[in-house]
Amino acid sequence: MDSSEHPHQHPTPTRARRAWSAAGIAAVAALALSGCADAAPDDDRGSSASARATAPADLPTGQTAPDGDTTDVVTGLEAPWSVVRTGDDGDALVSERDSARVLELQDDGTMREVGTVDGVSHGGEGGLLGLALHDDDLFVYSTADDGNRIQRYDLTGTTGSWALGDATTIIDGLPSNTFHDGGRIAFGPDDMLYASVGDAGASSDAQDEDSLAGKILRLTPDGDVPDDNPVDGSPVWSLGHRNVQGMGWSSDGTMFASEFGENTLDELNVIEAGENYGWPEVEGEGGEDQGFVDPVQQWSTDEASPSGLTVVDDTVFVANLRGEVLRAIPADDPGSSTEYFQGDFGRIRTVLEGPSDTLWFVTNNTDGRGDPVQGDDRIVSVPLTRAAG
Question: Coiled coil where (predicted)?
Answer without folding.
Answer: none
